[in-house]
Amino acid sequence: MRSRTGQLRDVVLIADSDVERAERLGSVCLEQGIDVVHATHGAQALELALAEVPAAMVVQVDLPLIDGERLSAILRANPRTEHLRILLIADDQVETPVDESIGRVVPGHADPETIAHFLLTLLSKQRTPRSQEEDSSPGTGGIEGDLTQVSLPELIELFHVNRKTGWIELLRRSGRQEEKGRVALLEGDLVHAETGAVQGEKALYRLFSWDRGRFAFEPDGVDSDATIERPTRALLREGRRQAAEWDRLVVDIPPDRARVALAVSRSSLPAALHPLTQEVLMVLDLTDRVRDVLDRCDFPDYQVLRTLSTMHRKGLIQLRQENAIRGAGHTEALPAPLATRLRERLEPGGHRDVKVVVFAADEDAIRSFCGLVGELPGASMCEPDGPVPAVAGLGRISVEDDLGVEWLGALASPRFAPAWPLAAHGAIGVLFAHAGPVDESIQALRPAIERVSALPRARVLHGIFCGKESDSQVGALCDGLSLFDDRNVVEIPLEDPEGSTAAFRELLSRLLA
């Protein structure tokens, strides 16, 4: 931005829902020669920061729509804004409101001149010269980032609120293959989606399931024919519902790379079949790959996969994986479809293990967990025989020779709080192990639950260790933690080996889904 004299000046983005406080700070900044831009909620701040990278930001921790910590994490993950200096304003007095690596925290009642002083200090330490940053920034006004930080539904919500027109281009790697997708918005409304051979709502819901990859938004004229007519809000609600269905089905559904064939004669099939089943049978005359069946059927992917799973269970079709997993004896801990999805989530040439962190209130719960996992095929666990450190390696479940699940244990004692974000960094799942009375367990684990649940990306689940004949404590846990439903809670009966193994496999499936 240029001043009235035409000289290039630093621009600071102030993202604060307290308009009066933001205006007072803005006035002081202008007196200090700093130009300012205001945003009153996180979605607006994210759009402004990505479209024209400011020299620094002042961000309210409790910012509406996207809070300050989440906004800071998203900007840190974007190559254009990873070096952005951020000053956080905390309205509530808390000991450690945010990860210190995100930015300095000042109290909300601080004098505007004091905050402006901190801003000048940040600007003087800016790592990337402003002129270089402007030269390297694209002039198209586009926005790009990582889907691990901002999901596609969140992006659409952002652009819908701000009534944007343009294309969201998506790219991800699945094993060695590269997948692309496109979504078009017209004045904030979804009008078209495509990926691979499918278009419209079916393509949109498939893209909603992408939890990794890159996105880029280009404001441009949308000249594609409309393939989506439903209101955007209704599409987002349906997307959330389908995501919940995926979570429930993930253990049983076949991988899309599998081959499929009819196992019985057509004459033996019932005369009256569900329309979806009829469509699947018709498509099986044209292809023998699950992926192609998904592409050719008009119904949503999860419904087609659920139908294929039911037909397989009844012996009507045969499923065969295209690439058999080596060392089949090691894969029993994971259902075959889940093992396939686990391999697809790994980037080529990257680390061949995924990480899951277990938080527990005490060492005994950690040891109980290790004993339980150690009974699974392919598991190699190291049960701690002494005091457990803040973060400890617990062992590994082998899926194949160079692929597995690495387990870390962390104690939920507040004195270990600085280590919690580090332990959860890069994890695809976090499990809170509840042992003993639920109310006591909630009290002991709550600080870690609240801190870790605010971190981006990791899937959070709860495992309740219970007796074989114990009454269910799922409802009490959901009430105590204000959980909307129980699909992220699994009871594990320690006195029932068969039941505990089945429960743990279900829990593992949900963590890795």
Fill in the keyword field for this structure.
20 strands; single chain; 4 domains; 6-stranded antiparallel beta sheet; disordered N terminus; Rossmann fold; 513 residues; 36% helix; 7-stranded mixed beta sheet; Arc Repressor Mutant, subunit A; alpha/beta
Q: Biggest sheet, in brief?
A: 7 strands, mixed
- In CATH terms, what is the architecture of the largest domain? 3-Layer(aba) Sandwich
Q: Give unreliable regions as ranges.
A: 1-8, 94-101, 127-140, 323-332
Instruction: Estimate the global geometry from the Cα principal axes.
Output: flat
Ends: how far apart?
A: 45 Å
Spatial strand order of the main sheet: 15-16-17-14-18-19-20
Count of separate DSSP helical elements: 17
Structural class: alpha/beta
Strand % is 15-25%
Overall CATH class of the largest domain: Alpha Beta
Number of structural domains: 4
| Average pLDDT number | 77
Q: CATH fold name of the largest domain, please?
A: Rossmann fold
Rg, Å, rounded: 25 Å
Secondary structure layout plus pairing:
Elements: E1 11-15, H1 19-31, E2 35-39, H2 42-51, E3 56-60, H3 68-76, E4 85-90, E5 104-107, H4 112-124, H5 130-136, E6 143-146, H6 152-161, E7 166-174, E8 177-186, E9 189-195, E10 198-199, H7 200-208, E11 214-218, H8 232-249, E12 259-262, H9 275-284, H10 290-296, H11 301-313, E13 317-320, H12 336-345, E14 353-360, H13 363-373, E15 379-381, E16 391-400, E17 403-411, H14 420-424, E18 429-434, H15 438-453, E19 459-466, H16 474-481, E20 489-493, H17 497-512
Helix pairs in contact: 1-4, 2-3, 15-16
